[in-house]
Amino acid sequence: MKLYCLSGHPTLPCNVLKFKSTTIMLDCGLDMTSTLNFLPLPLVQSPRLSNLPGWSLKDGNAFLDKELKECSGHVFVDSVPEFCLPETELIDLSTVDVILISNYHCMMALPYITEHTGFTGTVYATEPTVQIGRLLMEELVNFIERVPKAQSASLWKNKDIQRLLPSPLKDAVEVSTWRRCYTMQEVNSALSKIQLVGYSQKIELFGAVQVTPLSSGYALGSSNWIIQSHYEKVSYVSGSSLLTTHPQPMDQASLKNSDVLILTGLTQIPTANPDGMVGEFCSNLALTVRNGGNVLVPCYPSGVIYDLLECLYQYIDSAGLSNIPFYFISPVANSSLEFSQIFAEWLCHNKQTKVYLPEPPFPHAELIQTNKLKHYPSLHGDFSSDFRQPCVVFTGHPSLRFGDVVHFMELWGKSSLNTVIFTEPDFSYLEALAPYQPLAMKCIYCPIDTRLNFIQVSKLLKEVQPLHVVCPEQYTQPPPAQSHRMDLMIDCQPPAMSYRRAEVLALPFKRRYEKIEIMPELADALVPMEIKPGISLATVSAVLHTKDNKHILQPPPRPTQPTGGKKRKRASDDIPDCKVLKPLLSGSIPVEQFVQTLEKHGFSDIKVEDTAKGHIVLLQEAETLIQIEEDSTHIICDNDEMLRVRLRDLVLKFLQKF
Amino acid sequence: MPEIRVTPLGAGQDVGRSCILVSIAGKNVMLDCGMHMGFNDDRRFPDFSYITRNGRLTDFLDCVIISHFHLDHCGALPYFSEMVGYDGPIYMTHPTQAICPILLEDYRKIAVDKKGEANFFTSQMIKDCMKKVVAVHLHQTVQVDDELEIKAYYAGHVLGAAMFQIKVGSESVVYTGDYNMTPDRHLGAAWIDKCRPNLLITESTYATTIRDSKRCRERDFLKKVHEAVERGGKVLIPVFALGRAQELCILLETFWERMNLKAPIYFSTGLTEKANHYYKLFITWTNQKIRKTFVQRNMFEFKHIKAFDRAFADNPGPMVVFATPGMLHAGQSLQIFRKWAGNEKNMVIMPGYCVQGTVGHKILSGQRKLEMEGRQVLEVKMQVEYMSFSAHADAKGIMQLVGQAEPESVLLVHGEAKKMEFLKQKIEQEFRVNCYMPANGETVTLPTSPSIPVGISLGLLKREMAQGLLPDAKKPRLLHGTLIMKDSNFRLVSSEQALKELGLAEHQLRFTCRVHLHDPRKEQETAMRVYSHLKSVLKDHCVQHLPDGSVTVESILIQAAAHSEDPGTKVLLVSWTYQDEELGSYLTSLLKKGLPQASS
């Protein structure tokens, strides 16, 4: 069993597991941090951005000034933003049989894989994952496509040139494999390859392996996966949460007894407590608005935003914010809000109970009804006429490189009354802000990452006790910025096996058994005998049938009677097939009883001699000699088949067959 | 001999009071727990005393499964769990769990408040009963215990309706509940995979009907409603609050919009508005089209359909009213019916099946003078129409489902005996499987022969597979191994491994036969002749001549020795172990025939 690690990003994994005869891709994460190296795509022409000076080498050479621009000491690529794809060369991706998706954030690279690698398999994901994943992709494509950019920079990617660039461009990895965003057509084609599954559904892959999604508690429809055969079990844990937010709680019990547990998608901010962050979020928001400023919340169109809106729903009246408009701007804002209300079965118990009343599970329905929350597909159109300040705007993209958020940064960045509050943990907020510097607006960093932290992980591992843990290398050492925090790493016994991008791990696995079915007719014919108390044995001679990776034992065919008889038999027909195995024998022959038995069967003139290791029984009349020792019996006789067979059967009476 | 036993307590050659007991591999499951619309006495609930006379139901039943929220499938549940007493798990889908208690409460209200029945289950009992419910997802494998598992499949019919697979080891039963094989305006079609159950228990409401296309029926329905409204008549459509009601509302809503009609459409009770809300929240259970467009336009937000008030019934002019319940056996639909029945301009459309004994059934069978409570006689002058809108599979649909699931046998419930008989024959002919149709209280026993799963050591399996993947029909190869049975752990290993694991030594049984050959030549030459003879005969075997002069065939050793007395005779010592028995025995008989004369 092997694990091919195609992504180096611990929360946006992409691994391929070869298990028995199947090739299974686990998640399809797209590393979007690469876009931080690019200039933002403004929705409205921004004089500031278009007037940034070109960057030149120290020696004044300015041949890159069309591609690279400088802003407050940082250098950015002036081009359509590009994403860092999973490794496509490490393994032939057309051999991948299935792709298992754990949550909607971990499927963003799907179109690259399913549309451009010769992939012909099936993708499995839950319904909310697919629906919300589609929204995320739709938003991404929309953000990029609605601001067509003629320029596509490629000169800087040249290895010799990249070396000359300042950090972080200099250190960017695999830049030659970075790709532009896919199209909606590719998204639709990719999504059409998905088969919907429900939690605890057992999905058979080629009869060899069974995969099962389990609730992971992190997002609507998010799952961990069990990949198992009858005797081996691999758990794939990706993006799980033990906090009570809106999704169904995590199913931990089903992860027990794993041979290998692959652990990815832990919290990216292990030092921040999500509850505390939500509190800070609310108080900073209220403070800004009370002072007449606007609040900008860069966010994804689904996920934490539901929880934030729920908190605000409870908070705004008590904080005296009832008159402040909340805007949610995204091409998929409406869909996201609507979809969140129809996945009752995937929600936590409290929300399910509301649906049973029947009431919408999320209170943002009421915020919309009372006009406190308004949503728009973009800042063009209705929004511009409704827009009132001060206000709170939720919009994407959290990288601040594209989407409506770019406009609000440009619009509000100059005033210190305004605040931008970062809640999404996927991007470093300082890097995200870099192309907007110098900035007068306040920046608050309240990352809310509900995924497992290291304390929860070690508790989980103690509970489910996998034999081996496999994880990204980042989890086996403290974060670089907090190298003294030995508590911020995975601690387990035996130590976790770690992987990095483009590595192949051989998983410590010894397959010993396989399931086989014994047909009832054969089972009826078996003769068990008790060898030791509680242990019985039966020798089995049967015909093996293997079909679709399922093995069945059928009774051996009855010896066929020679038909016709007129046909002259060829000599070779008589030659026995040496592959027909006889059972092994065990036990020992008690000489006295054996001799008695011989006498009973008409042998006379029996003589017994003792030897060093046993006895020799002589049948003088038949000129036959039987050497009997503890672990062996040797019959030496003339070529008298009848006699030999008689003696053989008498000996066998004392032995057990295996 | 293992067997599967099925006993309907209700719905055996009947519609209503669905309740079927299944015993499979020592597990007892109760499928549905319904009431009978046609009775008001003891017969309305299944006879649970059949299950066990003295013991507790909880001890006897491993679980209860409810297929959908219709009262003839869940109406007896609170009585069963709270009054008879059952504390085990009750499984149903999320929408069923949401809607079921509302319908039960409605049912209770009619029975207790309107009819004044005593000794009926209370609201609290409904609540307590629902606490025992475990909700299941579609396709989720629910482990009831270590051995028993159940899995729900989409059934169409009504929101949240499911078919259930009940499985223990390799034995399984599928129960369809009520289902629909053609998608309608709001729900999708039932679907099941080729799960090859030992037994498929299917409803057979429309066992003999093959319905024309849905479109024709819809057109007919709209035409009739339209005509009645045009002539100023009032149209009553008795429905159950959830299910057909929503489908017909969607139909009328779009028709009204297209034709720009003004006559009001009303929906009776507040329950229905609530019902529409359930459809909005459980939209993932509706058909693909509705699911796809719900963000733009939620089909369950009706513009033309308004809530009904009791006083509206006397308003002049045309109107369309949807009123509950659907079989005109009680409640608001019956009240309105009584009011409107005398006017021939009016119309009542029965959009579904009516159980015997209900007013709906009576008027559908042509009765025009009805005896009501208090010996009143009601003359029915209004037009009575029947439109089959019930979302049950018709004969074609049932056959289709049997074809999909490929069961080993079929059992019919939820239908009328005569019609079942017809379908039974058809199924037996077409699929060559046994088909049963037990009456209530009658038990069907099916012997099963489950195969036994064991673990085979990979070494043994691979050794076998490596020796030849293609099975040879003439010479089937035998796999040989030892089955070790320890408690319930069965493992098939190679004989060597079995010996080793049990700490036993192998006992070697060896034979050495003396074959006398007339051959005056030297021993070495005899051996050489034996070698070339065997080599030419045994082409498929490994025959070797060893440096020490002996000959081997596979692992059989042949040595030539001089005869102690007769120099013209040589003795061949053929030696083999028990494992080579066949070949050894064959060689001795071959050599006994002598060697061919050397050609040289």
Automatic annotation (TrEMBL), chain A:
It is found in: Cytoplasm; Nucleus. It holds the Pfam family Beta-Casp. Residues 548-573 are annotated as: Disordered. InterPro entries: Beta_Casp, Integrator_9su, IntS9-like_C, Metallo-B-lactamas, RibonucZ/Hydroxyglut_hydro. Residues 305-433 form the Beta-Casp domain. CDD domains: Int9-like_MBL-fold. SMART domains: Beta-Casp. Keywords: Cytoplasm, Nucleus. GO terms for cellular component: cytosol; INTAC complex; integrator complex; nucleoplasm. It comes from the Eukaryota. SUPFAM superfamilies: Metallo-hydrolase/oxidoreductase. GO terms for biological process: negative regulation of transforming growth factor beta receptor signaling pathway; RNA polymerase II transcription initiation surveillance; snRNA 3'-end processing. Component of the Integrator complex, composed of core subunits INTS1, INTS2, INTS3, INTS4, INTS5, INTS6, INTS7, INTS8, INTS9/RC74, INTS10, INTS11/CPSF3L, INTS12, INTS13, INTS14 and INTS15. The core complex associates with protein phosphatase 2A subunits PPP2CA and PPP2R1A, to form the Integrator-PP2A (INTAC) complex. INTS9 is part of the RNA endonuclease subcomplex, composed of INTS4, INTS9, INTS11 and inositol hexakisphosphate (InsP6). Interacts with WDR73; interaction is required for the assembly of the RNA endonuclease subcomplex in the cytoplasm. Component of the integrator complex, a multiprotein complex that terminates RNA polymerase II (Pol II) transcription in the promoter-proximal region of genes. PANTHER family: INTEGRATOR COMPLEX SUBUNIT 9 (PTHR46094:SF1). Belongs to the metallo-beta-lactamase superfamily. RNA-metabolizing metallo-beta-lactamase-like family. INTS9 subfamily. This is Integrator complex subunit 9. It comes from Vulpes vulpes (Red fox). The lineage of its organism: Eukaryota, Metazoa, Chordata, Craniata, Vertebrata.
TrEMBL record, chain B:
Its cofactor is Zn(2+). GO terms for cellular component: cytosol; INTAC complex; integrator complex; nucleoplasm. Keywords: Cytoplasm, Hydrolase, Metal-binding, Nucleus, Zinc. CDD domains: INTS11-like_MBL-fold (cd16291). Residues 245-363 form the Beta-Casp domain. Residues 16-210 form the Metallo-beta-lactamase domain. It comes from Vulpes vulpes. GO terms for biological process: RNA polymerase II transcription initiation surveillance; snRNA 3'-end processing; transcription elongation by RNA polymerase II. It is found in: Cytoplasm; Nucleus. This is Integrator complex subunit 11.
